[in-house]
Give the backbone structure.
Amino acid sequence: MKINKDKLADFIAAISEQTVYAPQKRGEALVFAPVAKGSNVNLAAANTTIPPKSVVFPQTETLLRFELGKTDLEAPVQEGKAVMLGVRPCDARAMVIVDNVFSWDVDDPYYLQKRADLTLVGLACLEPCVNCFCSSVGGGPASKEGLDVLMTDLGDGYLLEVLTEKGQTLCQSAEGLLEESVKEDKDAAEKLHAAAVNKITRQAPDTGPIPAGLPRLWEDPLWAEVSESCLGCGICTYLCPTCHCFDIQDESEGCDSRRCRTWDSCMFPEYTLHASGHNPRPTRRERTRNRINHKYSYFVDKFNVIACVGCGRCINLCPVNIDILNILSKVGEAL
Ligand code: SF4
Ligand code: SF4
Protein backbone atom coordinates (compact mmCIF):
# COMPACT_ATOMS: atom_id res chain seq x y z
CA MET A 1 0.00 0.00 0.00
CA LYS A 2 1.00 3.63 -0.27
CA ILE A 3 -0.48 6.97 0.65
CA ASN A 4 0.15 10.44 -0.72
CA LYS A 5 1.41 12.93 1.84
CA ASP A 6 -1.45 15.30 1.07
CA LYS A 7 -3.85 12.58 2.26
CA LEU A 8 -2.19 12.10 5.65
CA ALA A 9 -4.64 14.42 7.45
CA ASP A 10 -7.57 12.46 5.94
CA PHE A 11 -5.89 9.22 7.01
CA ILE A 12 -5.68 10.51 10.58
CA ALA A 13 -9.33 11.59 10.45
CA ALA A 14 -10.32 8.14 9.16
CA ILE A 15 -8.65 6.34 12.06
CA SER A 16 -9.51 8.86 14.74
CA GLU A 17 -12.08 6.69 16.49
CA GLN A 18 -8.91 5.72 18.29
CA THR A 19 -6.59 8.22 19.97
CA VAL A 20 -3.90 9.04 17.43
CA TYR A 21 -0.48 9.97 18.79
CA ALA A 22 2.26 11.56 16.68
CA PRO A 23 5.49 13.44 17.39
CA GLN A 24 4.81 17.06 18.37
CA LYS A 25 6.87 19.93 19.76
CA ARG A 26 6.40 20.75 23.44
CA GLY A 27 8.82 23.57 24.17
CA GLU A 28 12.27 22.31 23.18
CA ALA A 29 11.20 18.67 23.36
CA LEU A 30 9.63 16.47 20.70
CA VAL A 31 7.11 14.13 22.31
CA PHE A 32 4.31 11.77 21.32
CA ALA A 33 1.05 13.61 22.01
CA PRO A 34 -2.55 13.11 20.86
CA VAL A 35 -3.29 14.72 17.50
CA ALA A 36 -6.20 17.16 17.63
CA LYS A 37 -9.08 16.18 15.33
CA GLY A 38 -8.69 17.59 11.84
CA SER A 39 -5.01 18.50 12.19
CA ASN A 40 -2.06 17.24 10.23
CA VAL A 41 1.27 15.97 11.50
CA ASN A 42 4.87 16.42 10.51
CA LEU A 43 6.64 13.09 10.62
CA ALA A 44 9.86 14.44 9.12
CA ALA A 45 11.41 15.59 12.40
CA ALA A 46 14.07 13.53 14.15
CA ASN A 47 13.25 10.91 16.74
CA THR A 48 11.31 12.13 19.79
CA THR A 49 13.09 13.39 22.89
CA ILE A 50 10.79 11.35 25.13
CA PRO A 51 10.42 7.80 23.84
CA PRO A 52 7.00 6.33 23.04
CA LYS A 53 7.14 4.19 26.20
CA SER A 54 5.52 7.24 27.86
CA VAL A 55 2.17 6.29 26.28
CA VAL A 56 2.03 2.76 27.73
CA PHE A 57 4.13 3.50 30.82
CA PRO A 58 3.34 7.13 31.70
CA GLN A 59 5.76 9.14 33.81
CA THR A 60 3.05 9.32 36.49
CA GLU A 61 0.13 6.90 36.49
CA THR A 62 -2.75 6.49 38.93
CA LEU A 63 -3.09 2.83 39.90
CA LEU A 64 -6.13 3.25 42.14
CA ARG A 65 -8.12 5.85 44.06
CA PHE A 66 -9.49 5.59 47.57
CA GLU A 67 -10.93 7.69 50.34
CA LEU A 68 -9.14 7.76 53.68
CA GLY A 69 -11.12 5.83 56.29
CA LYS A 70 -13.07 3.81 53.69
CA THR A 71 -12.28 0.45 52.16
CA ASP A 72 -13.55 0.98 48.58
CA LEU A 73 -10.86 1.03 45.92
CA GLU A 74 -11.57 2.57 42.55
CA ALA A 75 -9.51 1.41 39.57
CA PRO A 76 -8.80 4.01 36.88
CA VAL A 77 -10.65 3.72 33.58
CA GLN A 78 -8.37 2.42 30.84
CA GLU A 79 -8.07 4.82 27.94
CA GLY A 80 -9.07 2.58 25.01
CA LYS A 81 -7.54 1.96 21.64
CA ALA A 82 -4.73 4.12 20.34
CA VAL A 83 -2.44 4.41 17.33
CA MET A 84 1.07 5.86 17.34
CA LEU A 85 2.27 7.28 14.03
CA GLY A 86 5.92 7.71 13.18
CA VAL A 87 7.45 5.43 15.81
CA ARG A 88 11.11 4.79 15.03
CA PRO A 89 12.13 1.15 14.64
CA CYS A 90 14.54 1.32 17.62
CA ASP A 91 11.72 2.48 19.90
CA ALA A 92 9.36 -0.24 18.69
CA ARG A 93 12.05 -2.85 19.47
CA ALA A 94 12.44 -1.25 22.88
CA MET A 95 8.75 -1.82 23.62
CA VAL A 96 9.15 -5.53 22.83
CA ILE A 97 12.10 -5.62 25.25
CA VAL A 98 10.13 -3.84 28.00
CA ASP A 99 7.16 -6.21 27.48
CA ASN A 100 9.35 -8.90 29.07
CA VAL A 101 9.46 -7.03 32.35
CA PHE A 102 5.75 -6.28 32.62
CA SER A 103 4.69 -9.86 31.84
CA TRP A 104 7.38 -11.84 33.62
CA ASP A 105 6.51 -12.81 37.23
CA VAL A 106 3.20 -10.96 37.55
CA ASP A 107 1.24 -9.61 34.59
CA ASP A 108 0.95 -5.84 34.91
CA PRO A 109 -2.64 -5.09 33.86
CA TYR A 110 -2.08 -1.34 33.42
CA TYR A 111 0.81 -1.71 31.00
CA LEU A 112 -0.42 -4.83 29.20
CA GLN A 113 -3.90 -3.44 28.52
CA LYS A 114 -2.43 -0.31 26.97
CA ARG A 115 -0.03 -2.41 24.90
CA ALA A 116 -2.87 -4.64 23.67
CA ASP A 117 -4.89 -1.55 22.71
CA LEU A 118 -2.01 0.06 20.85
CA THR A 119 -1.18 -0.11 17.13
CA LEU A 120 2.33 0.98 16.20
CA VAL A 121 2.87 2.58 12.82
CA GLY A 122 6.61 2.92 12.35
CA LEU A 123 8.65 5.21 10.17
CA ALA A 124 11.92 3.93 8.73
CA CYS A 125 14.84 6.16 9.76
CA LEU A 126 16.34 7.40 6.51
CA GLU A 127 18.60 9.97 8.21
CA PRO A 128 19.95 8.33 11.37
CA CYS A 129 21.17 10.75 14.04
CA VAL A 130 24.83 11.22 14.78
CA ASN A 131 24.81 8.96 17.85
CA CYS A 132 22.49 6.19 16.57
CA PHE A 133 23.97 2.70 16.76
CA CYS A 134 20.90 0.48 16.34
CA SER A 135 22.50 -1.76 13.70
CA SER A 136 25.20 -2.99 16.11
CA VAL A 137 22.75 -4.06 18.85
CA GLY A 138 20.34 -6.19 16.83
CA GLY A 139 18.18 -3.56 15.12
CA GLY A 140 18.33 -1.35 12.07
CA PRO A 141 16.80 1.79 10.57
CA ALA A 142 14.03 -0.27 8.95
CA SER A 143 13.71 -3.00 11.58
CA LYS A 144 10.14 -4.35 11.78
CA GLU A 145 10.25 -5.88 15.25
CA GLY A 146 7.34 -4.66 17.36
CA LEU A 147 5.69 -2.69 14.55
CA ASP A 148 2.25 -3.28 13.04
CA VAL A 149 2.94 -1.18 9.94
CA LEU A 150 6.26 0.13 8.64
CA MET A 151 6.13 3.35 6.61
CA THR A 152 8.92 4.53 4.35
CA ASP A 153 9.08 8.10 3.08
CA LEU A 154 9.28 7.96 -0.72
CA GLY A 155 9.15 11.73 -1.24
CA ASP A 156 5.57 12.47 -2.33
CA GLY A 157 4.10 9.72 -0.22
CA TYR A 158 4.71 6.85 2.16
CA LEU A 159 5.00 3.17 1.36
CA LEU A 160 3.07 1.22 4.00
CA GLU A 161 4.16 -2.32 4.74
CA VAL A 162 1.46 -4.08 6.76
CA LEU A 163 3.08 -6.45 9.26
CA THR A 164 0.33 -7.70 11.59
CA GLU A 165 -3.42 -8.17 11.83
CA LYS A 166 -3.67 -4.97 13.87
CA GLY A 167 -1.90 -3.15 11.05
CA GLN A 168 -4.27 -4.75 8.53
CA THR A 169 -7.33 -3.62 10.50
CA LEU A 170 -5.97 -0.09 10.76
CA CYS A 171 -5.31 0.17 7.03
CA GLN A 172 -8.75 -1.24 6.22
CA SER A 173 -10.35 1.60 8.18
CA ALA A 174 -8.71 4.09 5.78
CA GLU A 175 -8.93 1.96 2.66
CA GLY A 176 -10.24 4.62 0.29
CA LEU A 177 -7.16 6.75 0.93
CA LEU A 178 -4.58 4.06 0.21
CA GLU A 179 -3.38 2.92 -3.20
CA GLU A 180 -1.77 -0.34 -4.19
CA SER A 181 1.99 0.02 -4.28
CA VAL A 182 4.00 -1.20 -7.24
CA LYS A 183 7.30 -3.07 -7.43
CA GLU A 184 9.21 0.18 -8.10
CA ASP A 185 7.97 1.57 -4.77
CA LYS A 186 9.26 -1.45 -2.86
CA ASP A 187 12.58 -1.36 -4.71
CA ALA A 188 12.94 2.34 -3.91
CA ALA A 189 12.20 1.69 -0.22
CA GLU A 190 14.75 -1.12 -0.06
CA LYS A 191 17.42 1.13 -1.57
CA LEU A 192 16.63 3.85 0.97
CA HIS A 193 16.82 1.34 3.83
CA ALA A 194 20.22 0.07 2.66
CA ALA A 195 21.51 3.64 2.27
CA ALA A 196 20.32 4.46 5.80
CA VAL A 197 22.33 1.56 7.26
CA ASN A 198 25.42 2.99 5.57
CA LYS A 199 24.77 6.42 7.11
CA ILE A 200 25.14 5.05 10.65
CA THR A 201 28.58 6.13 11.76
CA ARG A 202 28.75 4.79 15.31
CA GLN A 203 28.91 1.16 16.35
CA ALA A 204 28.88 -0.69 19.65
CA PRO A 205 31.93 -2.91 20.12
CA ASP A 206 31.38 -6.66 19.62
CA THR A 207 28.62 -7.27 22.16
CA GLY A 208 29.12 -11.08 22.13
CA PRO A 209 31.56 -11.33 25.08
CA ILE A 210 30.13 -8.40 27.08
CA PRO A 211 27.21 -10.04 28.98
CA ALA A 212 29.34 -12.88 30.39
CA GLY A 213 32.43 -10.67 30.78
CA LEU A 214 30.92 -7.72 32.70
CA PRO A 215 30.78 -9.48 36.10
CA ARG A 216 34.58 -10.04 35.89
CA LEU A 217 35.04 -6.24 35.72
CA TRP A 218 33.17 -5.60 38.98
CA GLU A 219 36.14 -3.94 40.71
CA ASP A 220 37.76 -2.55 37.57
CA PRO A 221 38.97 1.09 37.81
CA LEU A 222 37.05 1.90 34.62
CA TRP A 223 33.82 2.47 36.60
CA ALA A 224 35.33 5.30 38.62
CA GLU A 225 36.78 6.80 35.46
CA VAL A 226 33.59 6.73 33.34
CA SER A 227 31.34 8.02 36.13
CA GLU A 228 33.60 10.82 37.35
CA SER A 229 31.68 13.64 35.67
CA CYS A 230 28.18 12.17 36.17
CA LEU A 231 25.74 14.60 37.82
CA GLY A 232 23.24 11.91 38.81
CA CYS A 233 20.47 13.74 36.94
CA GLY A 234 18.82 10.53 35.69
CA ILE A 235 18.22 11.82 32.14
CA CYS A 236 19.97 8.81 30.60
CA THR A 237 17.45 6.50 32.25
CA TYR A 238 14.28 8.61 32.17
CA LEU A 239 14.63 9.10 28.43
CA CYS A 240 15.88 5.62 27.60
CA PRO A 241 13.18 3.65 25.75
CA THR A 242 14.10 0.41 27.54
CA CYS A 243 14.38 1.77 31.10
CA HIS A 244 11.32 0.79 33.06
CA CYS A 245 11.96 1.30 36.78
CA PHE A 246 9.25 2.91 38.87
CA ASP A 247 8.34 3.80 42.42
CA ILE A 248 4.86 3.53 43.96
CA GLN A 249 3.53 6.07 46.43
CA ASP A 250 0.24 7.03 48.06
CA GLU A 251 -0.80 10.69 47.89
CA SER A 252 -3.65 12.37 49.74
CA GLU A 253 -5.40 15.69 49.52
CA GLY A 254 -7.87 15.83 52.39
CA CYS A 255 -9.51 12.40 52.31
CA ASP A 256 -9.13 11.94 48.54
CA SER A 257 -6.19 9.66 47.92
CA ARG A 258 -4.53 7.85 45.11
CA ARG A 259 -1.82 5.27 44.70
CA CYS A 260 0.41 6.22 41.80
CA ARG A 261 3.56 5.03 40.19
CA THR A 262 6.20 7.29 38.77
CA TRP A 263 9.35 6.69 36.78
CA ASP A 264 12.38 6.09 38.96
CA SER A 265 16.05 5.96 38.05
CA CYS A 266 18.89 3.73 39.22
CA MET A 267 21.12 6.81 38.78
CA PHE A 268 19.52 8.40 41.88
CA PRO A 269 21.06 7.66 45.31
CA GLU A 270 17.59 7.14 46.87
CA TYR A 271 16.89 4.30 44.46
CA THR A 272 18.78 1.78 46.60
CA LEU A 273 18.82 3.63 49.93
CA HIS A 274 17.75 1.25 52.70
CA ALA A 275 15.60 2.37 55.65
CA SER A 276 18.64 1.65 57.85
CA GLY A 277 20.62 4.35 56.02
CA HIS A 278 22.85 1.81 54.29
CA ASN A 279 23.16 2.21 50.53
CA PRO A 280 24.64 -0.66 48.51
CA ARG A 281 25.27 1.76 45.61
CA PRO A 282 26.60 4.74 47.54
CA THR A 283 28.35 6.61 44.71
CA ARG A 284 27.95 7.28 41.01
CA ARG A 285 30.61 4.63 40.37
CA GLU A 286 28.31 1.85 41.60
CA ARG A 287 25.26 3.38 39.97
CA THR A 288 26.91 3.69 36.56
CA ARG A 289 28.26 0.15 36.88
CA ASN A 290 24.73 -1.04 37.63
CA ARG A 291 23.24 0.82 34.68
CA ILE A 292 25.62 -0.84 32.22
CA ASN A 293 25.45 -4.26 33.88
CA HIS A 294 21.67 -4.14 33.93
CA LYS A 295 21.38 -3.39 30.22
CA TYR A 296 24.23 -5.51 28.93
CA SER A 297 24.43 -8.42 31.38
CA TYR A 298 21.56 -8.96 33.86
CA PHE A 299 18.85 -8.42 31.26
CA VAL A 300 20.60 -10.77 28.85
CA ASP A 301 20.80 -13.45 31.59
CA LYS A 302 17.11 -13.11 32.34
CA PHE A 303 15.51 -12.39 28.97
CA ASN A 304 18.21 -13.21 26.44
CA VAL A 305 18.27 -9.76 24.89
CA ILE A 306 20.38 -6.64 25.43
CA ALA A 307 18.24 -3.89 27.00
CA CYS A 308 19.67 -1.20 24.73
CA VAL A 309 18.45 -0.52 21.20
CA GLY A 310 21.11 2.02 20.24
CA CYS A 311 18.74 5.00 19.99
CA GLY A 312 21.54 7.34 21.14
CA ARG A 313 19.32 9.41 23.47
CA CYS A 314 21.50 8.87 26.54
CA ILE A 315 24.48 10.18 24.55
CA ASN A 316 22.66 13.09 22.93
CA LEU A 317 21.02 14.28 26.14
CA CYS A 318 23.56 13.67 28.90
CA PRO A 319 24.48 17.17 30.14
CA VAL A 320 28.12 16.18 30.69
CA ASN A 321 28.60 14.09 27.53
CA ILE A 322 28.88 10.69 29.13
CA ASP A 323 28.79 8.31 26.19
CA ILE A 324 27.60 4.71 26.56
CA LEU A 325 29.62 3.69 23.50
CA ASN A 326 32.81 4.96 25.12
CA ILE A 327 31.94 3.01 28.24
CA LEU A 328 31.29 -0.13 26.17
CA SER A 329 34.60 0.36 24.35
CA LYS A 330 36.44 0.52 27.69
CA VAL A 331 34.56 -2.59 28.80
CA GLY A 332 35.56 -4.34 25.55
CA GLU A 333 39.23 -3.36 26.05
CA ALA A 334 39.25 -4.49 29.68
CA LEU A 335 37.83 -7.95 28.93
S1 SF4 B 1 22.49 11.73 31.93
FE1 SF4 B 1 24.70 11.81 32.24
S2 SF4 B 1 24.97 13.10 34.09
FE2 SF4 B 1 22.81 12.47 34.05
S3 SF4 B 1 22.78 10.59 35.32
FE3 SF4 B 1 23.03 9.93 33.18
S4 SF4 B 1 25.27 9.73 32.92
FE4 SF4 B 1 24.93 10.96 34.78
S1 SF4 C 1 20.99 2.90 26.81
FE1 SF4 C 1 21.08 4.83 25.62
S2 SF4 C 1 21.35 4.18 23.47
FE2 SF4 C 1 20.68 2.36 24.64
S3 SF4 C 1 18.44 2.35 24.38
FE3 SF4 C 1 18.88 3.47 26.29
S4 SF4 C 1 18.98 5.64 25.70
FE4 SF4 C 1 19.12 4.42 23.81
The chain has a mean pLDDT of 96.
